[in-house]
Amino acid sequence: MNxxxxxxxxxxxxxxxxxxxxxxxxxxxxxxxxxxxxxxxNPEQGQAVADKxxxxxxxxxxxxxxxxxxxxxxxxxxxxxxxxxxxxxRENFDYLVNNAGISQRTLIKDTTxxxxxxxVNVNFKGLFFLTQKLIPLMVDGGQIINISxxxxxxxxxxxxxxxxxxxxxxxxxxxxxxxYAERKIxxxxxxxxxxxxxxxxxxxxxxxxxxxxxxxALGRLGEAEDVGVFVASMLSDDSRFVNxxxxxxxxxxxx
Length: 255
What we know:
Elements: E1 10-13, H1 19-30, E2 34-39, H2 43-55, E3 60-64, H3 73-88, E4 93-98, H4 113-134, E5 138-147, H5 160-179, E6 186-192, H6 206-214, H7 224-234, E7 246-249
Parallel strand pairs: 1-2, 1-4, 2-3, 4-5, 5-6, 6-7
Helix pairs in contact: 1-2, 1-7, 4-5
């Protein structure tokens, strides 16, 4: 049984070097939560986020992690254990935010098997097996947040595989919540709508951006900060009875 009385909480954020993941990491740091964030192929970008948290009085470490390579997950888990002991004198952590992901804009008729497999490996298979590896390091009563997408609810051409995998992630969220309820680990999914980042598809031309804004009740695209500040707010006992839920942050798209 993993329990802890330590005052400082710790979150692990995958894909925490840019976009929504960066905002989650920074906002968690502002709340006094220790942050382990991951980057894939840009160590300078990842370290810059950790440095900013540390400069503002928080504590953060950036680690390299490729969510498509399940063969590396044992080594990554061991690295997390080492960082917990070295930097926090802990054997476990409190929160996991599965944010790492990739998207490709390809119509169904043009989707190759290689592209399909890559999306599955990063967005679903990697999430499943990383969570499986890391849960033994989590405290009882901790929380997992899986970053989904509004595309699990509404459809646009060109993102069929990505949207379907996010719907699968939301289903998986409920199963994790069910199976780990005995340890009081809560598992929820957060589904951003159209977010004004390169990954979120918001960096198109002005007419496209306005079209998306017109589909949204609040009349604008979301910002990474809209998601980051909300997810960080969930990393506390204030959300202690929220479990197996899908929470959409879209400003009211298609309502």
